[in-house]
Amino acid sequence: MTGAWDGAGLPPVAAARVAGGRDGGTWSSALSTGEFAAIRSVGFEPVGQVMGSAVYRVGRSGRYWGYHACGYRSGWSNGGNPAPVALSGQGAPSAALVQVLDDARRAALGRMTAECTALGGDGVVAARLTMAPFPAAPHCLEFKVIGTAVRAAGEVRPHRPFTSHLDGAGFAKLITAGWVPVGLLVGMSVGVRHDDYRTGLQRFSWSNQEVDGWTDLVRQVRADARAQLRRQAADCGGRGVILADHDLRVWQEPCLTRDKQTDHITESTLVGTAVVRFATAPARPRTLTVMPLNGDGDRLRRRLAQAARR
Amino acid sequence: MNTFDPTAQGVPADAMRRLAELQPGKPGSIFTSDLSVNEFLLVREAGFRPIGLVLGSSIYHVGIQLGRWGKNQELETLSQAMYHARELAMTRMEAEAATLGADGIVGVRLSVEARDFGADIAEFIAIGTAVKADHPAPGGTDWRNNKGQPFTSDLSGQDFWTLIRAGYAPLGMTMGTCVYHIAHQKMSSVFSNLGKNVEIEPFTQALYDARELAMARMQAEAEALGAEGIVGVQLNAHNHRWGGHTTEFFAIGTAVRPLREDHEIERPTMVLSLDG
After folding, report:
1. Cα dist. A124→A30, A31, A45, A184 in Å?
2. Which of A43, A310, B215, B231 is the most buried (most CB within 10 A)?
3. In 10 A of CB A152, how many CB atoms?
4. What family name appears in the similarity comment (chain B) (predicted)?
5. In chain B, which residues have their Cβ closer than 8 Å to the Cβ of A152?
6. SS (H, E, C) A170-237
7. Gyration radius of chain B's alpha carbons
8. From residue A63, how far is each of A59, A69, A237 by CA, in Å?
9. Which residues, 6 or more positions from B257, have their beta carbon under 8 angstroms from its beta carbon?
10. DSSP labels for chain B?
11. Residues of chain A with C-beta less than 8 angstroms from the C-beta of B40
């Protein structure tokens, strides 16, 4: 077996596998036949399945972390002013947590693109980013990203492989329309807000009421996550972002500064792919309206799926 | 037959060249869109550019409703809560889009999420993609609706494309809601129907009344926008968390106006797909 690994570059077994794939020339991919055909149709070839993984310790509990400190210092009624929101994007204690998650994702993505480069690929399509508890140790999470590396026909190579969550068909449509993916991005934000006197009043009111403090908390956290995503898109030179997924979690924690009081914590995550237009796109084929003479079950399935989403 | 050869045309090479020329950190306007790739490309083809993801939300506490156990009636407090909270979310989303200078919002989804805030508290969210038109609407009119707000539509990118091609424009989403309490049966009627398969008229009537109220409210909203009609209407019954005899009827659709006199789209090509 191979020796110890210091964390730089690829783990020895991955490096060996990639080197073998490069010499042997037989590639593997998780693409379906349709996706494979779609990618070929726009002048790209799959070169192999690539992955990147990183196990990080992410401690969320204990006072040592204190990431959910709400920064609330005033009295119970706070003179009628609403409690502030401690946002990770504005340097609240939770910024450290967001930073760790971000580093871990970057490490996984970096290893995947390293494999892609080693295989001679120009980018990765159908990349799936997952975060799962590592069973062997508490507070450890495995960040994994897996996708299929593709190589463009022609002599031009990008400086850095692109990464994208789009499946083969989506990637092909994008290229056909004159857009190219740049990178897979994750924008994340954590916000903490102390449950103040006013929140309590609204919460237990007899009449219909908006709980405006909580609305504000959720709004600010989402806005911050979107700002992070935009900033990352600008950093990699993208012109637009196509979202893959967005998620919002809310939970309650006992307040770290005031005994017997509570805080609410909100965590928002946005995953998307930055895209950029390449100028000399061929004239777009006009979309053709068709009336299928079979597959009438599709529409029903779509409708049902739509109804389930609501 | 399609004889377009991307490799010969240099498409992959162009794409890679563009990536090689990227200038990271160059400030510029970046759009975010939560449309699928298909929808994104169709919206572009319909003559609109996505300019950003917009959303509005409201965390809302639903008050206490007093009702009579044995009477068919609308539960006004709950109806009002459902309506007011959704309206807050929609208005905030529209305000975000107006700030971006959008002409409209497509692919809007309205949802009610039970977050971890407590039993009678829910988050009402409206989320969509703000778009800006490349050209003014035919006849030199504005794309925005008669309230000067960006139009909103819950149509998918595909439906939006078809609507524009057919010579209609969306004006806004219209909704109507009604939370209704269906009376419990009186003992006497339970006994008289015991073991018989019969219609229970009060129940049927309750469902009719509630649906009618929800539909009429949606209609009234469309009239206020000066719409010709409402497309894509969905009428859903939700049983949120108010017990067995309480139902919310929620009607939602997109109000449309005509852009031109003829509403022809070219005849679709018949296809028979060979993969099932």
Report:
1. 12, 12, 11, 10
2. A43
3. 27
4. Belongs to the UPF0145 family.
5. 12-13, 15-16
6. HHHHHHHCCEEEEEEEEEEEEEEEECCHHHHHHHCCCCCEECHHHHHHHHHHHHHHHHHHHHHHHHCC
7. 24
8. 10, 9, 39
9. B168, B169, B171, B226, B227, B228
10. -----HHHHTHHHHHHHHHHT--TT-----EEE-S-HHHHHHHHHTTEEEEEEEEEEEEEE-------TTS-EE-HHHHHHHHHHHHHHHHHHHHHHHHTT-SEEEEEEEEEE--TT-TTEEEEEEEEEEEEESSPPGGG--SS-TTSSPEE----HHHHHHHHHTTEEEEEEEEEEEEEEPPPPPHHHHHHTTT-----HHHHHHHHHHHHHHHHHHHHHHHHTT-SEEEEEEEEEE--SS-TTEEEEEEEEEEEEESSS----PPPEEE--S--
11. 242
pLDDT-based confidence at residue A184 (cuts at 50, 70, 90): very high
A234: nearest CB among B30, B77, B266: B30
Q: Measure CB to CB from residue A215 to each of B11, B57, B77 and give the nearest one.
A: B57
A292/B25 touch (CB, cutoff 8 Å), yes or no: no
Encoding tokens for residue B91? Answer: 């208005």
**CB contacts, 8 Å: B157 with chain A:** none
Residue in B37, B80, B131, B159 to test binding to A, most A beta-carbons within 10 Å: B37
Query: B170: which residues sit within 8 A by CB, 6+ positions away?
Result: B104, B106, B151, B152, B153, B155, B160, B163, B254, B255, B256
A33 lies within 8 A of chain B by CB: no
**pLDDT category, B136, cuts 50, 70, 90?**
confident
B-facing residues of A in 91-120 (CB < 8 A) are: none
Mean pLDDT over A111-135 rounds to: 90
Averaged pLDDT, A239-256: 86
Closest CA to A104 of A68, A126, A129, A121: A129
Both tokens of B87, joined, read 């309206």
From A24-28, A214-218, B39-43, the region with the lowest mean pLDDT = A24-28
Write out pLDDT tens, residues A53-103. Answer: 999 888 765 444 567 777 776 665 556 677 788 888 887 888 888 888 899
Interface membership of A234 toward B (CB under 8 Å): yes
Partner-chain residue, chosen from B25, B63, B236, that has the shortest CB–CB distance to A234: B25
Q: Tell me which chain B residue has its CA closest to the CA of residue A289.
A: B268
CB contact under 8 A, B61 and A209: yes
Alpha-carbon gap, residue A34 to B196, rounded angstroms: 56
The answer to whether B59 touches A214, Cβ cutoff 8 Å, is yes
Distance from CA of A138 to the nearest CA of B (A): 25
How distant is the Cα of B72 from the closest Cα of chain A, in angstroms? 22
A206 part of contact set with chain B, CB < 8 Å:
yes
Name the token pair of A107: 């490490």
The pair of three-digit structure tokens given for residue B132, joined into one six-digit string: 């800006």
What is the spatial distance between Cα B149 and Cα B144, in angstroms, rounded to a whole number? 6
Shortest CA distance from A201: residue in chain B: B61
Say what the pLDDT of residue A23 is.
66
Which chain A residue lies closest to B64 (C-alpha atoms)? A206
CB contact under 8 A, A154 and B16: yes
CB A238 to CB B118 under 8 A?
no
